[in-house]
Amino acid sequence: MTDRKVALITGGVGGIGTGVTRKLAEDGFFVVANYAIEGSEVAWRAAMSAAGMGKDRVALAHGDVTDFDAMDKMVADITDDHGPVAVLVNCAGITRDMSFRKMSPDQWQAVISTNLTSVFNVTRHVIDGMCERGWGRIVNISSVNALKGQFGQTNYTAAKAGILGFTRSLALEVAAKGVTVNAISPGFIDTDMTRAIRDDVREQLVASIPAARVGVPDDIAQAVAYLVSDGASYMTGANLAVNGGTYMHA
Ligand code: CAA
């Protein structure tokens, strides 16, 4: 059990998730990083320890975010071991890029389950406690591509745009309970996900970024840190665009 506020990051060992985990741990949260693929946490744990983030500051929680019951158990275990979840960052996400006319039902379903249904599966298990305690922060990671569309990503953009609707509606439902629900829409961030894009397509995307650089996970982590702070208590239902000027919207 910790006396710090507990922050749960889904996909916490991934590219953006790792940046968020580090930043929130630095800011004094006890951070639980969720991961789905057995073994992916080993090198991650070693790197975190080397960076001074030991087990007293950062824990790991295995579980598949597409499985509602598994998330129920994971949240219950975290609550027993460390304390109630005060901050949830829904960060788990995958791509299965394919032009729509070639897209298989599996490619559609995998992305909708992992990127959108996951947000329901995890949030559903933490929201009652947050409302009862009168304080909570939920941050959902969407994407610039949800706003502008992206060739080859009908599945991904549908899921990420769904997250924005979810964010606004849940924000309304819990606004009077001291719980805020916001989204962040990252642009092109240097992670394994964007490194996997075909070289020619990647080069074109990078060349079009007005800030003339690819984003780094810490660019997103800084925005998360603000949204989960006490100072952001009047911000809810918002979507922060962190994209180096790639897409500007009202
Ligand atoms: N815009 C317009 N037309 C395009 C295009 C594009 N970006 N890419 C391909 N086309 C055209 C081709 O010119 C070709 O046209 P013709 O048939 O007239 O010759 C046709 O589409 C080819 O279609 P294919 O289905 O064969 O396309 P492909 O297999 O060559 O490539 C793809 C499809 C793999 C999805 C490729 O477009 C791609 O990798 N796109 C990038 C997807 C992307 O941006 N992913 C972002 C991942 S990172 C992320 O998602 C993080 C985040 O939140 C920002």
Plain-language structure description:
The protein has 250 residues and is α/β, with parallel strands linked by helices. Helices cover 47% and strands 16% of the residues. It has a single domain (6-239), classed as Rossmann fold. It contains nine helices and seven strands, in the order E-H-E-H-E-H-E-H-E-H-H-E-H-H-H-E. A seven-stranded parallel β-sheet has the order 3-2-1-4-5-6-7, with helices on both faces. Helix 1 (15-26) crosses helix 9 and helix 4 runs parallel beside helix 6. The chain is globular. The N and C termini lie far apart (43 Å). Residues 95, 97-99, 102, 143-145, 150-153, 156, 186, 188, 193-194, 197-198, 201, 205 line the site of acetoacetyl-coenzyme A.
Summarize the structure.
With 250 residues, the chain is of the alpha/beta class.
Question: Which blocks of ≥5 consecutive residues have pLDDT under 50?
Answer: none
CATH fold topology: Rossmann fold
The arrangement of helices and strands along the chain is EHEHEHEHEHHEHHHE
Number of strands: 7
Placed side by side, the strands forming the largest sheet appear as: 3-2-1-4-5-6-7
Strand content: 15-25%
Give the number of domains: 1
Radius of gyration: 17 Å
Query: What is the approximate shape?
Result: globular
